[in-house]
Amino acid sequence: MKNFEYAAPRSEAEVLTLLHSRSGHTEILAGGTDLVGLMQANIVRPERVVNILEVPSLQTIEQLDNGVLAVGSTVTLDVLLDHPYLTPYPALRQAIEGIASMQLQCQGTLGGEVLQRPQCWFFRSGRGLLAGGGKLPTEGDNRFHAIFGNHGPAKFVSTSRLAPALVALNAQVRVIGPGETDENFVSVESLFRTPRHEAEREHTLLPNQLLTHLMIPAATGFNATYEVRHGAGPDYPLASAAAALEIEGGVVREARIVLGHVAPTPWLSHEAAAAIVGQPVNEETGAAAGAAAIVSASPLSNNDYKVQLAQVAVKRAILRAAGQETGGF
Length: 329
Ligand SMILES: Cc1cc2nc3c(=O)[nH]c(=O)nc-3n(C[C@H](O)[C@H](O)[C@H](O)COP(=O)(O)OP(=O)(O)OC[C@H]3O[C@@H](n4cnc5c(N)ncnc54)[C@H](O)[C@@H]3O)c2cc1C
Description:
Blueprint: E1 5-7, H1 12-18, E2 26-29, H2 35-40, E3 48-51, E4 61-63, E5 69-72, H3 77-81, H4 90-98, H5 102-107, H6 110-115, H7 121-124, H8 135-139, H9 163-168, E6 172-176, E7 183-187, H10 188-191, E8 210-216, E9 222-228, E10 239-248, E11 251-260, E12 267-268, H11 270-276, H12 283-293, H13 305-321
Parallel strand pairs: 1-3, 2-3
Antiparallel strand pairs: 4-5, 5-8, 6-7, 6-8, 9-10, 10-11, 11-12
Helix pairs in contact: 11-12, 12-13
The structure holds flavin-adenine dinucleotide.
Flavin-adenine dinucleotide is lined by residues 27-35, 37, 52, 73, 99, 104, 107-109, 111-113, 115-117, 161, 205, 210-211, 234-236.
């Protein structure tokens, strides 16, 4: 690992002062479960590491007057999982439970989980986020790569397990920096982007900005996450979906359906939402929404099996949200 400066500031303002302006020269350290491995492998080579775990304002969980749940970015996943405020958000609880490793849940933070880097094996072996402008995954082993949003050079899939649920729930992030007084609230949906060249990351934060809190609106309806996994244990799902539904008089009035692990960003499916809105939730309408979700899929040479998995994930997330789960993988 390359030598680096280390800082452990005690306030948000100090964090901003310590962050450099150029990508790759400074990295933010939370639980470190992702970042440290990348540094050990020399994939990420910062000159300075800023540990944010000792900033008290990032460790809070609060329900605001308007019902929004504000969770500090360094709250660990196990603390959030056990918190009573999480009860109306089964989609988040199910996603955290999916991580299936007590060590990762205790060490990993909410901000780190959302911003962890892609698991793409080309990226993790030092070939860059876009892996030769997309050439390596196109011509090589792309079993676990994207089936949506993969027409440009980015073929990796967004890694966060929580992000699809957060997008479905219409959550925002509070971002501070680069200036001392800069504060912005950005939807989780627009926090992610599909990079077009190696200088861009998979999220829109500048290197001198800090994600301080996740702001999750009051849950007024039903929500759930469903993951299709290749087996039990701490590994990423092959495909997942999160559904947030408003149901009135037995029919769906509003829906946000988001696929995970199938595209370089969490993938909001307007097609699936349109298919389920105005319908009662049952096996048939859930299946129709699943079928609608995959209409625009564009699998690579070795991953068309993921199309079926994505379809199933959407159907089961909808049924699970409505309390109609029946078996599964
Ligand atoms: C061996 C191993 C197995 C794993 N298996 C699974 C698995 O099966 N399923 C699964 O879902 N996950 C898995 N993970 C991933 C794990 O869930 C994540 O690594 C963890 O949630 C990241 O949280 P962290 O706090 O440790 O992040 P860190 O490693 O500290 O940070 C991750 C990234 O986010 C950035 N960052 C963190 N906080 C902020 C912030 N507030 N503002 C701006 N940038 C920030 C960091 O700079 C870094 O780039 C695994 C990890 C390991 C090491």
